[in-house]
Amino acid sequence: MSEFPKSDRPVVRLSEEQAWERLASAKVGRLVTVVGDRPEIYPVNYVVTDGKVYFRTGEGSKLSELAVHPNVAFQVDHIHEDTAWSIVVHGTAHVLRSFDDAAKIDALGLAPWVPTPKFDYVEIRATEITGLQYNLVKN
Prior knowledge:
Elements: E1 11-13, H1 16-25, E2 28-35, E3 38-49, E4 52-57, H2 61-68, E5 71-79, E6 83-96, H3 99-107, E7 120-135
Antiparallel strand pairs: 1-7, 2-3, 2-5, 3-4, 4-7, 5-6, 6-7
């Protein structure tokens, strides 16, 4: 992973490449969906490859919401001693149906963290990714 940009500025916009690098370095993010006029947020473990985010889920409200409203946001952040970063992906979620897709994603190391059935694979195709680095106040 490349170094964080050095700057005296408190907030630095990351390049698209830096945003993808940071996103790929984390393991848990937050999926944001919209149900009616109410946003919903779900923590999910995920993997990234080829400009796409993948996660697994089970039957239920999250999967139902994605079928009705596939436009989503996905957010990940990380805090270090004197810096932090936040990445937001906007995109479209698609439930993957092929065994080949599932095998490809499993090969990336995506496995459920919670011992509940998660047989559905979801791909988020990014339409936009943004990232910010925060240079924190040292106490």
